[in-house]
Amino acid sequence: MYDRVTESGKRLFVWMERLDRWGYIAIGFSLLAVSILLFFHGWAEFLDALKRTDAFLFTSLTLVNSLLLIVILLELFRTIVRFLETDILRVEPYLVVGIIACIRRMLTASAELGDLRHVPDEFFDKYLKDMVMNAGLVIVLIGGVYLLRMRPVPSDQYDAVPAAGPRQEAGLKPASTFRA
């Protein structure tokens, strides 16, 4: 098919690739900016709530919920950066995001429920089903991560090999191998 593509078609494909890259870059910066704003907002809300109330447990769980959302966003940001560096889209970071999202949901539901003695039976049954579903999903996702690590996909072999850059050409170690 590509041997029948005209020269103008090839130029169009090049521009589409560039726009695709810029789209990923824009989304990456957006995720990073939202993460930073959520971090400061979460801490400001936490400190403000501590001044107003004595509900340390509830405000702490709200902060933990916000921080877990930030971890999810930063993991997606890291996945985009890695994709832009290698042109390889890996599955494992999405599984990790799913695990964090399930745990976040479990913590949020537990915090919202509060005291179990005053909860109607029907609501409690829904809560238990939600917890079991999320716990089962965490186990399945952890199993997926385990399987990926046991039998890496062929593209994983390229993740450990850094591209030759100016540091290696000068006989220096790559920056990623330096230990603090």
Your description of this structure?
With 180 residues, the chain is mostly helical. The chain has one domain (2-154). The protein is built from five helices and no strands. The longest helix is centred in the N-terminal third of the chain and has 46 residues, at 7-52. This is Phosphate-starvation-inducible E. It comes from Nitrospira moscoviensis.
List keywords for this structure.
5 helices; Phosphate-starvation-inducible E; extended; transmembrane helix; P_starv_induced_PsiE-like; cell membrane; disordered C terminus; 180 residues; transmembrane
In angstroms, what is the radius of gyration?
23 Å
Counted by DSSP, the helix tally is 5
Mean pLDDT: 82
How many domains make up the coordinates? 1
Shape assignment:
extended
Coarse structural class:
mainly alpha
